[in-house]
Design a protein that fits this description.
- The structure is a single chain.
- About 30% of the residues lie in helices and about 20% in strands.
- The longest helix is centred in the C-terminal third of the chain and has 19 residues, at about 375-395.
- It contains 18 helices and 19 strands.
- It starts with 16 loop residues before the first strand and ends with a helix.
- Helix 10 crosses helix 11 and helix 11 packs parallel to helix 12 (about 360-365).
- It has helices at about 30-35, 50-65, 90-95, 120-125, 170, 175-185, 195-210, 225-230, 245-250, 300-315, 325-335, 360-365, 375-395, 400-405, 425-430, 450-455, 460-465, 515-520; strands at about 15-20, 20-25, 40, 75-80, 105-110, 115, 135-140, 145-155, 185-195, 215-220, 260, 260-265, 315-320, 350, 370-375, 410, 480-485, 500-505, 510-515.
- The mean pLDDT is about 95.
- It has three domains: about 30-160, Diaminopimelate Epimerase, Chain A, domain 1; about 260-480, Metal-dependent hydrolases (TIM Barrel), CATH 3.20.20; about 480-520, no CATH class.
- The protein is an alpha/beta fold.
- Strands 3-4-5-6-8-7 form a six-stranded mixed beta sheet. Strands 12-13-14-15-16 form a five-stranded parallel beta sheet.
- The structure holds zinc ion (ZN).
- Zinc ion (ZN) binds near residues 28, 193 and 415.
Amino acid sequence: MAHAGPQTRHVDLQGRTLLPGFIDAHGHFANALQVVGWANIQRPPAGPVTSIASLQQVLREHVASHPVAKGEWVIAYGYDVDGLSDGRPLDKADLDALFPDNPVMVIHNSNHGAVLNSRALAIAGYDASTPDPTGGVIVRLPGSTEPAGLVMETAFLPLFVHMPQPSEEERLAQFDQAQRLYTSKGITTVQDGATVAGDLGLFQRAAREGRLCIDLVLLPLVLEVPSMLRERFPDFLGKPLEMPQPALDAFGQYRDRLKLQGIKLLLDGSPQGKTAFWGEPLLTPGPNGEANWRGQPVFPPEQLNESVAQLSAQGLQMFAHCNGDAAIAMMIEACRKAGLKPEQDHRTVIIHSQFMAPGQLEQYVELGLHPSFFTVHAFFFGDTHLANLGPERAGRMSPMASAMALGLHCSNHNDFSVTPIEPMRMTETAMTRRTRTGVVLGESERVSAEAALRALTIEAAWQIREEDSKGSLAAGKRADLVILDADPTATAPEQLNAIAVVATLKDGACIYGSLEGAQA
Ligand SMILES: [Zn+2]
């Protein structure tokens, strides 16, 4: 009230709850632009699919509402074999039956792979004679080398070059709908957590044209940095990760709501896809039935060490995707070799920090690394982790209470489009760590509602160096706010996901819902 002036408008929230706008600590805004045109084949509660037949039905309905010509791609997202009641995975024959003349890509819920039909496999050039590429998996039909349909990691990533890209105008037209996915959940700062060269110009144009209503934070993917530099600095002849000064200057400042924050490194795959890199073997076979499977790293350690040394020497903030304890150990070792220390305030973020080995959090403290956790995994994939890892290792997933006790800055994310944008489910799972079947994973790692909310607000702001302007309600900070219809700190965890967003404000302007609704 001390700050109120003649222009100040008073709004009585009538018992509703005002919080700082939520910050997307890790996710993929580029996916939001895409999924608005793809079929949602997630299992409940995120989607409708419970069997191969229901998945086929969703594809039929999608094509009825988004017609495709012969030869055009049909794309679906959110495939989860554990959500199928059939007792077997989806394969190419299930998709060939529906679409003999169209390539089909059913993207795995890890976003690290997809099930392809025969047309798509042919376009990719995969047949019985194709060996698995380094760092990738082509799953085969039982008893043969013929591809079954599912391809993962480096067998999946090159597929996108075969797909016709929508025009820049078509993609710009999706920005409103894509941002609404976030504003409807109270998110006022969103991340594109692995920006590719082809998208950087699109995001910059969208910003210039005033199409962003929320702040968009970009993390260029390390592999894409050389092409981004070549495009913008054709005369530059330095090493690929050594940036000319104007490129370095582009980091850390918003321009028209767009900010380049740091560089994204990718060390392993996904635990539910069994492509994370673990120190000890899984209790279940690998993606191709391998015994003693413990996954594999995306890069050899020498290459990672060199990237970390070059990026840190230039003062670039690093965001490293590490799911398994062996990938986490590789990153710790690379940071140690590069001489990182907490006093440098480098704020290196280990995205996921999912299956940490004992002692690794203490190494984070020693080097100044901070985790962005993924607690909704307990709900969406927790039962799968129990089967693959057993209760002790599965119970160590996203160790938020231990990390907070050590004073680390912990954020929490939903890695959209891997899981739906649901800040309240993130809060719930940080508090309960309960799986779909009701098992609690690592009871001692449960945190309070206040701690869970800090991970979505002030700690997420800290990780992108915005704690002075965002993440708490304080005079002088940006008026990035969300109004909820109930108080999450006074709601039973099981009821949290039913809390609705009444209004979302960015810099004081209402961008979702209405203040009138809040007053009613
Ligand atoms: Zn991600």
